[in-house]
Records
---
Amino acid sequence: MQDPVYKLIELTGTSTTSIEDAVDKAIQRAHQTLKNLSWFQVVETRGSITEGKVRQWQVTVKVGFTVDNTAATSA
Amino acid sequence: MQDPVYKLIELTGTSTTSIEDAVDKAIQRAHQTLKNLSWFQVVETRGSITEGKVRQWQVTVKVGFTVDNTAATSA
Amino acid sequence: MQDPVYKLIELTGTSTTSIEDAVDKAIQRAHQTLKNLSWFQVVETRGSITEGKVRQWQVTVKVGFTVDNTAATSA
Amino acid sequence: MQDPVYKLIELTGTSTTSIEDAVDKAIQRAHQTLKNLSWFQVVETRGSITEGKVRQWQVTVKVGFTVDNTAATSA
Amino acid sequence: MQDPVYKLIELTGTSTTSIEDAVDKAIQRAHQTLKNLSWFQVVETRGSITEGKVRQWQVTVKVGFTVDNTAATSA
Amino acid sequence: MQDPVYKLIELTGTSTTSIEDAVDKAIQRAHQTLKNLSWFQVVETRGSITEGKVRQWQVTVKVGFTVDNTAATSA
Amino acid sequence: MQDPVYKLIELTGTSTTSIEDAVDKAIQRAHQTLKNLSWFQVVETRGSITEGKVRQWQVTVKVGFTVDNTAATSA
Amino acid sequence: MQDPVYKLIELTGTSTTSIEDAVDKAIQRAHQTLKNLSWFQVVETRGSITEGKVRQWQVTVKVGFTVDNTAATSA
Amino acid sequence: MQDPVYKLIELTGTSTTSIEDAVDKAIQRAHQTLKNLSWFQVVETRGSITEGKVRQWQVTVKVGFTVDNTAATSA
Amino acid sequence: MQDPVYKLIELTGTSTTSIEDAVDKAIQRAHQTLKNLSWFQVVETRGSITEGKVRQWQVTVKVGFTVDNTAATSA
Amino acid sequence: MQDPVYKLIELTGTSTTSIEDAVDKAIQRAHQTLKNLSWFQVVETRGSITEGKVRQWQVTVKVGFTVDNTAATSA
Amino acid sequence: MQDPVYKLIELTGTSTTSIEDAVDKAIQRAHQTLKNLSWFQVVETRGSITEGKVRQWQVTVKVGFTVDNTAATSA
């Protein structure tokens, strides 16, 4: 197909260690059901605090992937 | 699972009565197929007008929910 | 149903010719599996360049459609 | 006319009771002189405070209406 | 007058063919009653969909024009 | 004082019933220690969900108040 | 009237001397036809350059004014 | 301390003469109780109008200052 | 208390090593005087450069915490 | 080189015919001196008006290109 | 050339006296090497503070200028 | 020179390991030709994905540096 179409979904990954790890977690989870993930963009970085320390990094990403002709863009 | 992953979807609820009711309608509808809805954020508040009165409130929300290991992040 | 609920999905259409064609491509692709598409909004217009010419227009759109009672808002 | 043109004006409605009432007030007032109001979008929600209570809700909306061929888009 | 003042109005032009045509339609319509239009800025590009095709492009523009001393900035 | 100075603080009020009630709660709480609250602006509207219903509205507001000469702008 | 309604218009004032003067120019001009101007907000500050010097400050403001019951919110 | 921490507060200064003077007023007032102010950023420029003239410039600034070890980041 | 109120403050943490460390520094410092910190959101990531290397990461966060009934929302 | 670095420049292309043509003009011009242009993003779409018609489309794009080791990132 | 191309660069001018002077300084400096500066837009207004007074205004502007056929758009 | 002028350029650094490393890469590259880099600001964080893992972090930064009197602000 000459003109591919991509779909973007929005995920929030979490991690106790780093921003990068939270992004990795989100992408790994999406990869279990979507095999053609192509790119991501960080939308927001938040987190929760316990006793004066960062307990959990929460990073929201938009993830883009190609929609091929057999897989439906189910809503 | 120690590091949960969330997915966000975007819905527009409508109501003839109030902003809160439009949000409720969107969440109730999503709950029919997604049982683990966790939080929402209002993205936009619009509406249509008929004869100088608000006919319909249209409130767009992002709704977040946990993605467990058995349910797929189908696109 | 008196108070309809809509879902919005985000797609990137591509085209070698124009912005309008890229939007058309994204909507045609979504229409293969979603029959009740209602409106769209252009979110971003980007593209790739080869040898000093636009090779591909990449236009990201949000597409809204009614969620009826039988079709699930599957995530 | 096949390709209608709309004009948008910006109004701030006020109310002592609710956000919805402030929007209604703005639209009712505009309707006194503009009979073809079609849609609105909430732009900003502010208010004034007296003795620790909300005294007045101030909601700014953009209101769109069709410009027909006989009515001028007077500035 | 050494220091001119401009007014900006917001219009949504529509077209079944292209973004450019929708902008043209909005400007042509404004020109019927405002003869000194000077510049425009695209604010938003949306559209409606029918049966998987773009039915109508809806492009919102801000249009600026000089306010001379005889013409009032009527609200 | 001819040229007053205002300070703005950011609060998130919560309510199980409505957006307006959440704003009221935030302002009432601030009024316990700040007697000269003057205006507010809604910054964000979020909420939590339990079993497909809105459990809690969470509305973030900026609240402005006059800083007089005796009260310090303590940080 | 207990719940006043305001209208906002957008103007660009110009000046060869300062930002403040450009805002003053826009408001003075609007005051020729609108007697109840109440507040303004600076939206954008631009300018033109001639031979390495600022030739003209161009400051765009939104100006709000009360809409009374006799004056129409003509579009 | 090798890695200093700063706090930002938001103030609105007012002036009948200029934007710069309104900023100065806000900073002078904050300096009465906070001795280590370091930088500021203009967030918003508004004002009130009386009889077609700017009566008061209202400039909102974020002001940053170092939080030393003895002074508390009291809320 | 059924409807808690939260306050948000804005801090800039700094670090010579990483973004995460700068956030940690800001939260640790706030924790010295505020014991009920709950969540944070990254607002801006900047830094200073010395001899072609990042010398200091400067990360601005909004930090939210519950305001209980005995602690005042002092300004 | 395993970790390429890109530079982005901002250009405004103009055209009497279309948005796409204005983007093409900007990219063709940049290509005269920069041979490795890679991608672009539309930042703003404006234009000038003469006698009720669009006289010139003015489209601002950010253009990205790889910075190789021999070519300097001259400022 | 019928369809000119412009380039935009971003500069921060500084001044101890006013916002306008900081913009002038940035433009004068750019004019030393770029003779065809055409327009500017204020992007951000910040400053530094010493002993409770504004020590330096720091105003960031985007400056546009025509790219002629002999001068290269060097990166 | 009492009132320095700064220039800002926009770069995208890439890295297979972390966000911080991508920023370092961009700054090191710019330092090869620009010796007076002063500060940076992260504008966007994106990346590419291969087989469900982050393959490349792509971080766009604005980098500021002093423009001295001998070095030209070449465009």
Note: The two ends of chain K are 22 Å apart (CA to CA).
---
Amino acid sequence: MDTRLGEYVDEFTRRDWQTLDPDAVDEPVRIALVGLGWFSREWALPGIERSAFTEATVVTDIDADAVDEVASETDLTGVTPEAFRAGEVAGEYDAVYVATPNATHLEYVEAAAEQGKAVLCEKPMEASADRAESLVEVCADAGVPLMVGYRMQTDPVVRRLRDLLDAGFVGDPVHVHATMSQTMLGELTGDPDQWRLDPDLSGGCALMDIGIYPLNTTRFVLDADPVAVSGTTRTEHEAFAGVDEHADFRLEFPDGVAAMCTVSQNAAHASRLEITGTEGRLILDPAFYEREERELAVERGGVRMDVEVDPVHQVEEEFAYFGHHLLTDTPIYPDGRHALIDSRVLEAIYESAETGEVVQLTE
Amino acid sequence: MDTRLGEYVDEFTRRDWQTLDPDAVDEPVRIALVGLGWFSREWALPGIERSAFTEATVVTDIDADAVDEVASETDLTGVTPEAFRAGEVAGEYDAVYVATPNATHLEYVEAAAEQGKAVLCEKPMEASADRAESLVEVCADAGVPLMVGYRMQTDPVVRRLRDLLDAGFVGDPVHVHATMSQTMLGELTGDPDQWRLDPDLSGGCALMDIGIYPLNTTRFVLDADPVAVSGTTRTEHEAFAGVDEHADFRLEFPDGVAAMCTVSQNAAHASRLEITGTEGRLILDPAFYEREERELAVERGGVRMDVEVDPVHQVEEEFAYFGHHLLTDTPIYPDGRHALIDSRVLEAIYESAETGEVVQLTE
């Protein structure tokens, strides 16, 4: 009997990176959460709790009410940002998750590094490539591990897509299309995420906040980095004055593979990654949002398979990976050096949008 | 009872352009076919015969065997290209369908115009914008109607998609993605279509032959023309030496609407058009090939409808439109002036691929 498909299906959601038995973990990595926006509360906190390798112990935010609320609902220690940075409860955590507005990541990472704590920093790593580079250096100098929160990279569906590409399932990749959009004002009205409209805090809007998904996920699955980029940004709605409401960009990877990407903070919901190769296609749709049940379509030689998977909790997987790798002292893949390339590419796309020119990234 | 959906469904495939009762047509437009490649034989001939407004009467090709074969299988008059151009059987047809290699369209259209015959010319209209312009002028000077063979424009699914956009169903269009690819060498081995590999005959390969579908269909459904374009072409396989095997391009429409397009003559089959607006999305997948059963997905406000339609014979619809409009003396929409814009845009994309610069099309 041919068991190949059976084995493939059974192993589809395996954690290919896991060497430590979750049941054998007595002392999970204790995490301090910095920043209590909706993603932290709705996704990161539950993700940390679900993961066998992590537990949340401390929370902080500039919004004292939010800290009180979370602390009173849980057994977490709530502190002010000042107390956190001063290390007043540093004995209560081993690692720090930073999910504040982009331009404030550095200050919290500096504090964590000074305290000798490992860091999981949200993406984009900072509001500019220069600040992102400082952030990487701070962690390197302090000798603390730094992971960047690319939750797509630890999603098993995305990892299987990458495996297929790596195994040559579609031949040589030729073209990539990626689109991701949402109605930020409509979906998130009244939410503290409105800091994304402040260029000083965010460093940009559609491209910084959303563009990083098509960019990083394409890099991850192709296992390659762009060599040239071009792009355009556009703002029509007055709420987006000073930042980019819509953006499109083209990433050129080695061998001329082109990724055509569009993102928007003010368009109907879209979420799709599509790779066409010389011999087949791989389509992830929906692709990028944490709340979506990702579906993978696999096409080759007239055969199409649609793979629907019981969704993992994407942020649990991310924190499990982080905790697991700290406990096993294993190098982390989406690290600062990896994330720094995104910061530079995003900056190059903004530059291209200003000048109308292609920006070469090879030196 | 709410009959809105019922009426919509019932009228979905209606010919919104048809004013003449097909059953009332005694004398359909008699068509001479020039060029007997696989598309002419497999699609155009049956399309002409199926349409109540047209009938095929004459065939010609530089391949005398092909002419003999078709003439012996049917009751059509087969003639040599020389005899055709000399008008030897001009009394047997009212209109001429030109489906020869791109760079030879002009000579046959000149003959047809001289004979006072209406013309349906395959797309791209010619191998260069200059020759395309001459072709348009030849017809204008002779006062003969000229239609260009954009079979997507008379497909009811495409027309309904256009209606929805026009009615504001998705709000303002924001981004378009289009992809179309095939393995030309594999799918068409031994076929006379290999003239597409000869730049003198074709004027280009992936972009000219395939790129025109995303380009023209996007123009048609948005009812707008690009104001700026950029693009890249690439050739890896030796069989494509001298022409473009792969291409990607960005079309910028008025108001900054961006269409991101990829095409290939040597990649896995893909065929998709996707429009994201401020309030919804319209997705045609498969979209572009004559043999596909087009499916339209309509998304707005959390509702998604998938529309599958009994496929029309796309080339029947095209010839029915052509014949109908000649019989009723009605202006033809995809005319030479319309097609000339595609020729200029394609040339601008090739220029951009050479220079790496964006080419502005507004003057």
Note: The mean pLDDT of chain B is 95.
---
Amino acid sequence: MSSSESQDPAASSEAQISKKAAKKEAAKQEKLRRRQEIAAASAATANLSVDEADPLGGNYGDVPLVELQSKTPVDVGEWTRVEALVAALENRTVLIRGRAQAIRPVGKKMAFVVIRENGFTVQCLVQAQPDTVSTQMVKFAAALSRESIVDVEGIVSIPAAPIKGATQQVEIQVRKLYCVSRAVPTLPINLEDAARSEVEIEKALQAGEQLVRVNQDTRLNFRVLDVRTPANQGIFRIQSHVGSAFRQFLLSENFVEIHTPKLIAGSSEGGASVFRLDYKGQPACLAQSPQLHKQMSICGDFGRVFEIGPVFRAEDSYTHRHLCEFTGLDVEMEIKKHYFEVMDIVDRLFVAMFDSLNQNCKKDLEAVGCQYPFEPLKYLRQTLRLTYEEGIQMLKVCLKICKLINLQVVDKKGDRMMDVGIEIEPFGDLNTEAERKLGQLVLEKYGTEFYILHRYPLAVRPFYTMPCYDNPAYSNSFDVFIRGEEIISGAQRVHVPEFLEQRAAACGIDVKTISAYIDSFRYGAPPHGGFGVGLERVVMLFCGLNNIRKTSLFPRDPLRIAP
Amino acid sequence: MSSSESQDPAASSEAQISKKAAKKEAAKQEKLRRRQEIAAASAATANLSVDEADPLGGNYGDVPLVELQSKTPVDVGEWTRVEALVAALENRTVLIRGRAQAIRPVGKKMAFVVIRENGFTVQCLVQAQPDTVSTQMVKFAAALSRESIVDVEGIVSIPAAPIKGATQQVEIQVRKLYCVSRAVPTLPINLEDAARSEVEIEKALQAGEQLVRVNQDTRLNFRVLDVRTPANQGIFRIQSHVGSAFRQFLLSENFVEIHTPKLIAGSSEGGASVFRLDYKGQPACLAQSPQLHKQMSICGDFGRVFEIGPVFRAEDSYTHRHLCEFTGLDVEMEIKKHYFEVMDIVDRLFVAMFDSLNQNCKKDLEAVGCQYPFEPLKYLRQTLRLTYEEGIQMLKVCLKICKLINLQVVDKKGDRMMDVGIEIEPFGDLNTEAERKLGQLVLEKYGTEFYILHRYPLAVRPFYTMPCYDNPAYSNSFDVFIRGEEIISGAQRVHVPEFLEQRAAACGIDVKTISAYIDSFRYGAPPHGGFGVGLERVVMLFCGLNNIRKTSLFPRDPLRIAP
């Protein structure tokens, strides 16, 4: 858990102290373990090379670089995937490549090596035998550093007892063992530690055992190791699937995929949160979203467009849900008359996406849930729509009841809203706590964790948002929530250039800096609307994760621009 | 044709003078036309509003904004798509929305309006009739500005003679006509002009008629108008399809889609062509490609990854094929032994993509070919592979023969290579002319315009390229060509950290700035390789276009950062 993650405020200070002590102790133990590892590794270095006197020396050793430099074209079929190692292959000789995830020597004549490939693992036994496996080869296996990449040739056997430490229920009797790429003997993160759930750590603690907890900064500093855990492999496969489901749905609905520039003149959509740079002597900035250009594409007659690409926000936000660079899923479309036409797309798109994730990413969702337990997302076949006013009303009633029942319960769960201060302003925006509370109320009343809140106050929306026809204090806009957190913002846009200019000016934007955008509406502009989604947020909230850094491959926040 | 596009050097100076004169004349005529338009428009302004005395005034007019502000939810089915207007709908009343592409009044009692939607057009007749269409309504129709968006309600009829000026072979007898969004009366680009082919212009010129030629800068300045032409609509739908075919193939081959940061510390892959900026007080730059992070993802156990996203090059290139920002299609994958494993993916991926484009984008390819004629790409079922040495050999033989046959033919086409100076250095790179010539030779000998050239000299490849096992002057790398121009660069990478450090230093790169990248290989790194493709180049060369600005929606070059 990162220090930047929110702590449970209900935890007593006593518990916190013991947690601190536990952390300290764990760190100490970790240091000790590493020191021992280094010692073991340097002792092992002597065993790295093949014993020249060993007549069976050809069966093991490091693969020389020249062999990996495209010396001989390969029949990839030579290798069997770890995933494919099943009982039906009994007695067959197979060749596999993977990482040495765990190495356990048993005396001098035997060593177990667990090989991992793409999340699947198999136990391999290197046992000294005349004519095939020398004791030097066992020594070589025992000296392998964890996470090294190896080629193993051996015979598939079926063990008497089920194998606990590997996904595959066969064992490989190793005949040949070659190291393709050696990992350093002491890894900055132990994968076993990185893959451990909070539940396991707490359980062990209650049993008096101190297990290492890898904090988030360490994870991110050594991200290439961190992402090898089953949960992280799952997260990024789920992310890939979200993008794919998003595209597939929109392409089937006649949307065109576009790519708009990230380098733009002027100051994007205004505000302070923009990265500025010099573009061949001209002042420029990084697009805060494809907003202006996707609307211009609608003026360019593409009818319905979408884009998947990076968006840049130079905000000083240190929360669990903000990044300085994230992947935006953006949609813009002509409408005939009403912003509900856009909400209809949101509705069908997301229900299709959630269905697809639940159907096609079972294994990945399980892997995530194993380390970070979560309940499957509750969503309706037709997405619930509430107006902002209805939402405010629900919050007001709830606040009133809470106050009536018991004014003293401010410290207990369920009434935290009162002490963290939900402020309800009818024409302001909802703060994070109010959004979360509303999410709870909606779940209780309607049984869904996915819903649309629309008809927001105009004052809290961007200048290009179309006001409501009947009350200009409200707007034809919406936000969409998952588990009480916002993931989508959308709206009908102002398509009348004179009105757009007026709105921009009213919002304090220098109209000259966006003249190309405003001019786009002078050549005939269809009524239109659209929305933007944060990819990392969708994955985070679908999986009930607590920090957006977990769903960004190489996250960027105000303090982090590496690796 | 843009001034930045290459002129045909074979053109005589006389022809150039007459071309210049023609251009001048065309510009004059264009000015005149615009002045007339402005006059017509201001005369027409008086007709914009509905005549209050007209008892049939309810059948036409401007749609008031309030009606477009989501006042009433809509049944989108009310509207019929222009594409769907066929003879079977005879005598039915339909409602359509589209742009008034052409308006032609005939006397005071009749006006033709051609409505365009998504590239399909239909002729509408507004004819004065008692009880339905007033002469004031005809006047209103005649005063519409081109490219305005209108709603037309009318009855489908089948005209006696085929309709030439529209794609649909029915006519709409207009009953109601409302303007949804008015275009300014004088457009900076006339769509008819923008859609014209060079062939048409030349033909007209020979018949003594001066037609307007819209130059590329004007097109790009008013891109939202320019992209409305059939050819441009086709280009960007083809582009969308390329991305979709790319993804679909890779996902089916177990690749994972990733998103790597564009904001990075240090100086990306080095060199001068990098955009620098301040990142919260730290020096940063925009990624010149996802190279480093996609390789790190391989170290992170994703096995096979791809990314589609912007790449940034601050190069001072003013050629027809360079941009400062373009869309990179990037692939990286583990290999067992040989870079041919990567080339196999390139081969199958692109053959599948070309097949898919030819099958699924017929209409779009035709639209492009109509304005910019081109021959369908010639490619083999299994992609040709030549070594760099074989390529050089072909060029050398050709040069020799040319010289032997006729030294005086330097001015004629086909031997231009000699005067523009193809320089062949066995361990240097091929220049653009040499690449083009080699493309011709390959086409003649092997009948393909798509091929792979591999085993490039190491000296001309990036530091992370794996040298050949048998000769370190060459490398396990390749380029891929379409119609004689490079679209892909790929290679096996160095996966040994010490060797990588050494290669970086040898290439003059400060190893400290890429330490996170190099460290990634210390925790066990599989042999791997990959490639990068420029999306805009693929579309440009598949369609035989002459400038990459044609295939970038809002292009960025050293002189252009708007719109």
Note: The first helix of chain A runs from residue 13 to 45.
